[in-house]
Design a protein that fits this description.
168 residues; two-stranded antiparallel ribbon; 36% helix; 8% strand
């Protein structure tokens, strides 16, 4: 076994042929010692969680969320964003290989990781995008069966239902 004093850590890329975008990658500035900037982050979910604080979600709606397998996302609430951690992960992300490059090796986020962190079901049929065929009247009938009340026409915005509809 080699003595620890003989080990030299090379923070740069070992194989330049694989990392084709290295010269324009954020990590290049770090290896050259010219960058010490934390990334600014944005989020757009604040109004939703303020609304949930003010008007708690009805137990019948929570039961539907549980049945859909999305209760883990709801319980995660509004997690704090660690800008330094996000910056460090961005610096270590390699778009060429779709992995994070750490001192201990490569890693990536898998669907199983998301399942464990948020309790999301990943088996079964997928949930697909917009359904443009249904009219507002069709959605009103469908929602009355699922959640037990009929939202007004004003509560709809194109193919989505406004969160405010649940406050009535």
């Amino acid at each position: 076994m080699a003595d620890n004093s003989e080990y030299k850590l090379d923070p740069g890329p070992l194989e330049l042929d694989v990392l084709t975008g290295q010269l324009t990658h954020r990590s290049q500035d770090i290896w050259e010692g010219s960058s010490n900037m934390i990334l600014n982050t944005r989020r757009e979910d604040g109004n939703f969680w303020k609304l949930v604080e003010k008007y708690p979600i009805h137990p019948r709606v929570l039961e539907v969320i549980r049945l859909c397998g999305l209760y883990g996302v709801y319980k995660a609430n509004r997690p704090a964003i660690d800008r330094s951690l996000i910056t460090a992960l961005v610096e270590r992300w390699r778009p060429e290989t779709h992995t994070f490059h750490f001192r201990t090796g490569e890693a990536t986020v898998t669907l199983q990781d998301v399942e464990v962190l948020y309790g999301l079901p990943v088996n079964g049929d997928p949930v697909l995008g917009n359904e443009t065929i249904k009219t507002i009247g069709d959605w009103q009938k469908h929602l009355s069966k699922i959640i037990g009340f009929i939202p007004s026409r004003e509560d709809f915005k194109t193919n989505s239902l406004k969160v405010a509809a649940f406050n009535a």
